[in-house]
């Protein structure tokens, strides 16, 4: 490493290693079987021990190295001392060696806002845990699961789980890290689990192979557990050839950039800024777009409200087509900020 990397590059390099540590925490808690689940506002809004420990690790690690950066995280946790075992001090050398885009090279810590979702897809995480521990109790080899059984089919939900760390400047998502703790889980015992995707505007994206849906197929990815009539009316209005219902905003953006879906459509409340900051930065870095249902961009300033109150519409290409298809009834139901 030559010279002194820009603050934002050092922050991004730390976010990368911190996200990997958080992913390891998420895996460890799952395999322990002691999830410590609590309901925050209902059965579809859960918090686990993994959420709590991962957030403590991320926030304490980043704030120790970057004390002037504003960090906003999902979970409301009591102020307490964080053990040294949760602190990550490393930085990704790959990122430190990259050249910072000129427009961000002189940014100061106090100009940056970090949005953290320590475990995106908590509901899917808990369901997958029940599946995994049924398998263990029944002594079923991982690679020999009978996927016709309900307890076994839930294991694919591990794909939905991500750790999200987004970096914003001037209200705009400019960089992001997505860790998938269970990537490669289907390869069975001994597989190298997990991967980390990252990206930055003006620099590019790393950790995955960019692909698009082949042909003219419209494949819409949408919510698995927060659906309602407005959501489905909007999905149907897109005239999709296929609809995929999965959990996690991070997971849905990964589907877009890896060619599994052409649009992420969620015409409802529920998604928050910590859900979309990191994924939006990565999507925008490859030329995609994320807006509300009115086509307006979300802001990520430190003082904005956390709810994405006008829904989420994200695409890799042809964003204007999908915006044009949003029904008037949906626009009236979801007021833009």
Automatic annotation (TrEMBL):
Q: Which reaction does it catalyse?
A: 1D-myo-inositol 1,4-bisphosphate + H2O = 1D-myo-inositol 4-phosphate + phosphate; adenosine 3',5'-bisphosphate + H2O = AMP + phosphate; adenosine 2',5'-bisphosphate + H2O = AMP + phosphate; 1D-myo-inositol 1,3,4-trisphosphate + H2O = 1D-myo-inositol 3,4-bisphosphate + phosphate
CDD domains noted in UniProt: IPPase
Essential cofactor(s): Mg(2+)
Per UniProt, the keywords (alphabetical) are: Acetylation, Hydrolase, Lithium, Magnesium, Metal-binding, Phosphoprotein
Kindly give the Gene3D superfamilies that the UniProt entry links to this protein.
Answer: 3.40.190.80, Fructose-1,6-Bisphosphatase, subunit A, domain 1
Kindly give the PROSITE patterns that the UniProt entry links to this protein.
IMP_1, IMP_2
Q: Which GO terms describe its biological process?
A: phosphatidylinositol phosphate biosynthetic process
**Entry's InterPro entries?**
CysQ/Inositol_MonoPase (IPR050725), Inositol_monoP_metal-BS (IPR020583), Inositol_monophosphatase-like (IPR000760), Inositol_monophosphatase_CS (IPR020550)
Any idea of its EC number? 3.1.3.57, 3.1.3.7
UniProt lists the family membership as follows: Belongs to the inositol monophosphatase superfamily.
Recorded protein name is: 3'(2'),5'-bisphosphate nucleotidase 1
């Amino acid at each position: 490493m030559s010279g002194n990397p820009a603050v934002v590059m050092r922050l991004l390099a730390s976010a990368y290693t911190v996200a990997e540590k958080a992913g390891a925490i998420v895996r460890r808690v799952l395999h322990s079987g002691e999830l410590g689940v609590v309901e925050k506002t209902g059965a579809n809004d859960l918090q686990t021990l993994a959420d709590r420990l991962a957030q403590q690790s991320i926030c304490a690690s980043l704030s120790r190295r970057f004390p002037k950066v504003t960090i906003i995280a999902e979970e409301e946790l009591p102020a307490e001392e964080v053990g040294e075992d949760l602190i990550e001090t490393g930085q990704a050398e790959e990122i430190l060696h990259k050249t910072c885009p000129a427009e961000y090279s002189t940014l100061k810590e106090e100009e940056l806002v970090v949005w953290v979702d320590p475990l995106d897809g908590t509901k899917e995480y808990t369901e997958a845990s029940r599946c995994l521990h049924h398998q263990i109790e029944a002594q079923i080899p991982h690679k020999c699961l009978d996927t016709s059984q309900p307890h076994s089919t839930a294991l694919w939900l591990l794909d939905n789980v991500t750790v999200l760390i987004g970096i914003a400047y001037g209200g705009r998502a400019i960089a992001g890290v997505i860790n998938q703790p269970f990537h490669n889980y289907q390869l069975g015992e001994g597989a190298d689990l997990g991967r980390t995707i990252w990206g930055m505007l003006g620099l590019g994206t790393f950790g995955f192979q960019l692909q698009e849906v082949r042909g003219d197929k419209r494949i819409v990815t949408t919510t698995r557990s927060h659906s309602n009539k407005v959501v489905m009316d909007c999905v149907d209005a897109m005239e999709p050839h296929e609809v995929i219902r999965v959990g996690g905003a991070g997971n849905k953006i990964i589907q877009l950039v890896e060619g599994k879906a052409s649009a992420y459509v969620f015409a409802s409340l529920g998604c928050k800024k910590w859900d979309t900051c990191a994924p939006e930065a990565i999507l925008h870095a490859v030329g995609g777009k994320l807006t509300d249902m009115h086509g307006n961009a979300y802001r990520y300033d430190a003082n904005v409200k956390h709810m994405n109150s006008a829904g989420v519409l994200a695409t890799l290409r042809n964003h204007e087509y999908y915006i044009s298809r949003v029904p008037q009834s949906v626009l009236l139901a979801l007021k833009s900020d």
